[in-house]
Amino acid sequence: MAHSLREPANFGASATLNTTPASNIASLFAEGLALHQAGRLSAAEKIYCQILQSQPDHFDSLHLRGVIFHQRGNHAEAVSQIDFALRSNPDHIYALNNRGVILHDLKRFDEALASYDRAIAVRPDYAEALSNRGNTLQALQRFEEALASYDRAITAQLDYAEALSNRGTTLHALQRLEEALASYDRALTVRPDYAEALSNRGNTLQALQRFEEALASCDHALTFRQDHVEALVYRGNALHMLKRLEEALASYDRAVAIRPEHAEALSNRGLTLHELNRFEEALASYDRALTVRPDYAEALYNRGNTLHALQRFEEALASYDRAITAQPDYAEALSNRGITLHALQRLEDALTSYDRALVLRPDYAEALSNRGITLVGLQRLQEALTSYDRAVDLKPDYAEAHFNRSLALLLQGNYADGWEEYEWRWKGGAKGARLRRFDCPQWRGEDLVGKAIFLYDEQGYGDAIQFLRYVPLVALRGGRVILEVSQALLRLVERLDGAAQVFASGGTVPSVDFYCPLLSLPVAFSTTIANIPSGVPYLAADSAEVAAWSRRLVDLEGVRVGLVWAGSSRPGLPEADRIDRRRSITLRHFAKLADVRGVSFVSLQKGQPRSQTLSPPPGLLVHDWTDELHDFGDTAALIECLDLVISVDTSVVHLAAALGKPVWLLNRFDTCWRWLLGRDDSPWYPTLRQFRQPKPGDWDSVVMDVRAALTAARTASMRHARRPNASGSMQ
User: Fold this and answer.
1) 45-49, 271-275, 306-310: least confidently modelled range
2) CA distance 37 to 35
3) How many CB atoms are closer than 10 A to CB 697?
4) Do residues 591 and 620 touch, judged by C-beta distance below 8 A?
5) If you write DSSP's letter for every residue of 138-182 in order, what string do you get?
6) Is residue 694's pLDDT more than 60?
7) Domain limits at 473?
8) Residues 406, 480: one domain?
9) Do 391 and 355 lie in a common domain?
10) 698-702 contacts, C-beta under 8 A, 24 or more apart
11) List of residues 6+ apart from 399 with CB closer than 8 A
12) Helix, strand, or coil here: 725?
């Protein structure tokens, strides 16, 4: 974000006027100068021209006419006029200084420096030229030289407020923030109402993360100049960091109303709109900024982030590429570009993008963590762990890297280390975990005799079902178990062994001695692959409801197979939503099962995808009673009357397996940690069989494998043996 730089310039005439005895040029010039100083440019120019008609080489008229051209924005003509004047007086320091200012505005910085240097050669203590020279050096990002020039200006004029303020902006650019504050404060001692210094001071306080003080400094600036655009922008930045987003937006809007082409205000406004989830408005704000500055790397980067949030990945990628073209060393853009490439399943390209970011910033912990995620997606687990290890070495409190590392360890089967790392979800590592606060300690395996313990489900339905297996084991430790679950699970879980009391989420938690989230129980039990409590069934449906469904399904012929083809979208959790897109298919994918003889298909699909049964693939008959399934208790009763459940990775997989029913899991290539790698069974569920994608996105191969397995199953054995063998495959 740019600093506001005030560039003072002395547009006054020389001390000695060039007069001609034949005319009263001195008097006429004095009148023109007075008009000029009063801001009446046309009237002043008319007099300067009148003088030049009589005396074409009149220095001050030529000089100040050039100044008028500059004030009107005609900088090229201004330089020509002043150059013409300097032919007769090449050492005129005011003209040389003004020429430098105009050349600076033309972005002809090297020529501006040369003009200032000519003036300073004539008068080494010419404070104004030294200060303006510092401004130009700052524009060239030659900050150490700029600082030296400001210091010379301040030595020549101790109370030079503008030089002190601009010196502060240079110190800020050099990341010498405390010194920058001291320089602003010296400027404000000279000029307490100096809005620019107060505004810049606010920007530096923000960089020091002293956001309340930054806001106060900007507000102070605005008491002197209500239309000070930079103060409004910096104020918006401070409010943004304080999470007062609506107020930040209002501050940016005020800035843009005053200066519609202010690119930084428009870009930062877009960032605030993004955080308010007003993504389309954010894009419009970035696009306005880019109309002003097409190569504005930060706006292009932020625009890419917003397009990514909208899951418009190809457009996001193009925006990141433009940002990197404008700023090739933009490590953050390269890292986020990698995230977008990962979302597009271009994993090798994503890896290359992270590596480019890390060449620029070897200590970039976020890029290392993102790189680890992509390596896991490529099933290169050891390399992923090395990347995560580097990230946490650089940032030991980096919760997301620790959590991501835990998933790789668990996927690898290293439960001893993985469960401990998984606890980092409570420190910000996992987006979906529900942090709870209790007055008692978390249970880590202590003696529970005579104690009460509160257990609760913290994440999705499938997670809860998978880890409810530990509840009877907790009860065996001698404690009184109080269990809280989601309303949808309540009726099913009320019959679970070991729970003295079960209630739905949102109820009053009684006084207890310990608490433990369900997914932290493996830590307390030191769970490894070898000692997973894998006995099934550990959940049961209501017997009366099972009997009712059994009567209704009596006419279904052959093997009764439940189908689930999609999970639940999660628009509030973008990464989870993208995973859902990768794990879900449509009913049409099951078209290849339509001609398998001796099978009756029953839908277990809930949510919006259930409507696909209204237009199934040709020849595929799917019986659908899901409008009668209101909770997991209802679904469990129906599953008990089926022979097999075929499902993508959803909570129904866990439910059927926890009931001890045969389950065929259609698993995506970038599998969840719980299903491990390189196996078609599961140590968690003895009745589960996996059908894995051989490559990302290849569901056709999976369904064909399922078709072959279903065809091979003998109808008679399926009808008379409602339980699987030990491996979970059907006989």
Assistant:
1) 45-49
2) 5
3) 10
4) yes
5) HHTT-HHHHHHHHHHHHHH-TT-HHHHHHHHHHHHHTT-HHHHHH
6) yes
7) 452-531
8) no
9) yes
10) 698/669, 699/585, 699/589, 699/666, 700/589, 700/592, 702/666, 702/667
11) 424, 425, 427, 428, 429
12) coil
Whether 372 is covered by a domain: the verdict is yes
Same domain, 714 and 639: yes
In a domain, 272, yes or no: no
* Final residue of a structural domain among 69, 90, 111: 90
| DSSP H or E stretch at residue 605 | none
Task: Please give the single-letter amino acid code of residue 519.
Answer: L
pLDDT at res. 436:
82
Task: Tally the domains of the chain.
Answer: 4
Annotate 177-227 with DSSP letters as a single string. Answer: HHHHHHHHHHHHHH-TT-HHHHHHHHHHHHHTT-HHHHHHHHHHHHHH-TT
The torsion angle over the Cα atoms of residues 542, 547, 552 and 558, rounded to 10 degrees, is 100
Final residue before a domain boundary, out of 505, 531, 557:
531
Say if residues 115 and 100 touch (Cβ distance below 8 Å). Answer: yes
Backbone conformation region of residue 191, classed left if phi is above 0, alpha if psi is from -120 to 50, else beta: beta
> Does one domain contain both 642 and 516?
no
pTM for this structure? Answer: 0.84
Contacts of 410 (CB under 8 A, 6+ apart): 418, 419, 422, 673, 674
pLDDT 10s digits, 425-457: 988 756 656 668 899 999 999 999 999 999 999
Residues 687, 554 share a domain: yes
Two structure tokens written together for 86: 């300097």
Task: Confirm whether 374 is domain-assigned.
Answer: yes
Residue 39: count other Cβ atoms within 10 Å of its Cβ: 9
CA-CA distance, 691 to 664, in Å (whole number)?
Answer: 7
Q: Which two tokens stand for residue 22?
A: 């034949």
CB of 226 closer than 8 Å to CB of 214: no
Report pLDDT for 429. Answer: 57
Q: Provide the pLDDT confidence category of residue 62 given band limits of 50, 70 and 90.
A: confident
Whole-angstrom distance, CA of residue 362 vs CA of residue 345: 25
